[in-house]
Amino acid sequence: MTAAMTAVETRPSVGELLRNWRQRRRLSQLDLASDAGVSTRHLSFVETGRARPSREMVLHLAEQLEVPLRERNELLLAAGYAPVYGRRRLEDPDMSAVRSALDLVLTAYEPSPAVVVDRFWELVAGNRSIALLTEGVDPALLEPPVNVLRLGLHPRGLAPRILDLPQWRTALLTRLAREAHLTADPGLAALHRELAALPGGFDRRPPDGIAVPLRIRHGDDVLSFLSTVTTFGTAVDLTAAELSVEAFLPADAHTAEVLRRSRLPAPAPAPVPRS
């Protein structure tokens, strides 16, 4: 028996994968069947391999389970169907509309810092104002691929300038842990383990307010930001679907005034997302 044959034989079936996603979402078969409008009996047959789901059924169940697009392709392959979600490089000519949209959003946020990150929190692009957040960091952390979470929480990165670092670390690591759980991505889980091991402490108290502000030292000053996230919610291309824009908006009038009076550096070339 060849290694290739063994790999095929040990690959999880579509039923096993769907069951894993259902359990990850903490849904019973009855819950999912009710949400999807199918019988519990049919869902049970699909999960146990007694029934082969149609392509449309695979996509329908994946939609109900909020399976990421990348993993929906894996479900389709496991069921014997071709993937439906393509993956193009951001620099490809037919992705020009996406690049233009990203440039437009990043420029619109200026003078507030904003970055585009991929699914793995690696920097895809940023506006000129991110220089305010990267000043003084170890140049090694700015070598591509730049991971913005590592950049923010590393002791040679932004971390020494962050006031209330334990609270900010807790907020970021909680979000990362949730993403690792929802996507079942081992890369995100590994990143969480790496960052959780960095110094900085944790704050187990519930956040005071709607959002946790990012308060950083800027010379002798203190600037306060609130972060927002923008995603391509209707994207059907994996590259676009896995991008998000993280913007840091002024949380008080003083920070807004400092940003308004700041002198923006010249634009820098953007790194390329990993495939």
From TrEMBL:
SMART domains: HTH_XRE. It comes from the Bacteria. Residues 18-72 form the HTH cro/C1-type domain. PROSITE patterns: HTH_CROC1 (PS50943). InterPro entries: Cro/C1-type_HTH, Lambda_DNA-bd_dom_sf, MLTR_LBD. GO terms for molecular function: DNA binding. This is Transcriptional regulator, XRE family. It comes from Geodermatophilus sabuli.
